[in-house]
Amino acid sequence: MSVMAPGDTHRAVLALGSNLPPREHHLDLALTRLAEVGVMVRAATERWNTRPVDAPPQPDFLNQLLLVEAAIEDGGWLEAAQRCEGPRRRWVPKGPRELDVDVVLVEGVVSSDSRLVLPHPALGTRPYLLSGASRLVPLWRPLPGGPTVAELARARLPPEWWP
User: Fold this and answer.
1) Most exposed: 12, 30, 41, 77, by fewest CB within 10 Å?
2) Strand-pair category, 117-118 with 48-50
3) What are the chain's domains?
4) pLDDT in tens, 14-66
5) pTM across the whole model
């Protein structure tokens, strides 16, 4: 993991998801694992039950977004997320999983790297991602000079998803 100088931290928004029982336990475990790799959770959304998107038939997901902070550089967030997931046990591509951790936003960072695209490509298409991000970091701008997360949420989400 790429670590920065002591005291120099960055913030990010991570998305947690689980659709294998016990779903709540897997999300709670992610919080413990984040702390173990030096990531501090600064805020969290409520948890939402969501249907899988572009995936084979499977159980619904339990999702939650977190505002986190750590002495991690941009690309290091992906490694932290993957370490938090633990051993990946995906029997079917885009199939059920115990824990999925995605990097949604890193404050002030845009990336088209093949390993980590920021902002997350699904930010504008999955209501829980945009709604959660607008609750946690409403004034962040996913793209320089573009609308804030809150402005995007108001423009793209039905009112029941507004913060």
Assistant:
1) 41
2) unpaired
3) 10-121 (3.30.70.560)
4) 999 999 999 999 999 999 999 999 999 999 999 999 999 888 899 999 999 99
5) 0.92
Identity of the amino acid at 114: S
Q: What is the pLDDT of residues 68-120, one digit of tens each?
A: 999 998 779 999 999 998 876 666 788 899 999 999 999 999 999 989 999 99
- Tabulate helix, strand, coil % of the chain (nearest 5): 30, 25, 50
The three-state (H, E, C) secondary structure of 62-76, written as one string: EEEEEEEEECECCCH
Neighbouring C-beta atoms of residue 127, cutoff 10 Å: 16
Residue type, 128: Y
